[in-house]
Specification:
heterodimer, A: alpha+beta, 2 domains, two-stranded antiparallel sheet, 4 helices, B: alpha+beta, four-stranded antiparallel β-sheet, 2 helices, tRNA processing (chain B)
Chain lengths: 189, 129
Amino acid sequence: HPALSRRYVLCEVVSEDPRCRQCIEDRALGLAVRDAIARVHGDYGLACCSISFTGAGETGGPGGAGSLQVRSAVRVSLVVKYLNAYTGTVLLRCRKDSYRLLCSALPFVRSLESRAQRYPCFLNTLHVGGTIRTCQKFLIQYNTTQLLRLLQNCTNEEERQCIQKSLLSCSLTEEQSQSGDEEEDDGTE
Amino acid sequence: RGPAGRGMAAAAFERRVLRRAAEHHYLRVRLELPDGGARPNAAQFKQLVVTALRELHGEVGAALPVDVLTYEEKTLSAILRVISSGFVKLWSALTLLGFYQNRRCAFRVLQTSPFLLALCGNSRELVLD
């Protein structure tokens, strides 16, 4: 269906401050990305994110007299589809026409803010795919290589044992709804 | 291209067509300030153009290489030069600019061309007697 083409951008949030983890939530991240796009691409970029998929652009502007809108823009094209606060993985969705705007604005996200706390961070773009499935396949492969790299960078024996145990114990099980890559969490922290 | 040369002699002429090869585009614009207030000087005019780009196209737009080649303060008309890839951004930003120092204003684009020489004559202003 050519009219509904989307692009999914997979990125990870990297921060030196461990408290930034708690800021990784969809609203804070969505606002930070939108803000970066507004700074870098102006009103045109912001409109490209707010346009809905049905074709008729819905803007979150003030409605006519007497209409009270609970949420400003119900359907927007820029959406945070998946978040993992432990690994800092974020999956963003956007229209195919404007994914270059999004990708070029991601390096300008410098901090995340939530509950009146702001922590510096940056976003690393890992993969751009056309469907969620391709991004998931990439993420599985990426996570396995990252775990192996963490194993090599272990400083003491205890961490090494911990990671080895978790590597050997994880598996893809059919009955769980989530696939295996989300069950692995870092042995080091 | 010359004749296909199936058994003919070497081509007598050669034609080359270059599409969109111009590096810069030139625009002749005029700023309309209906209230008779202070007129911007050349630096303020350029600042206005860059501000218009920044509002519509953000930092990327404001970083476009735009030059004000000539500026007449009396008539508020100028010739702008912009790199060809930023032509659409510049024209759209000029179109959507509404205010200069909280005063109503509007940009009128009179002529555009990839060649500067083409801006010297304007057939629209020709008076036919």
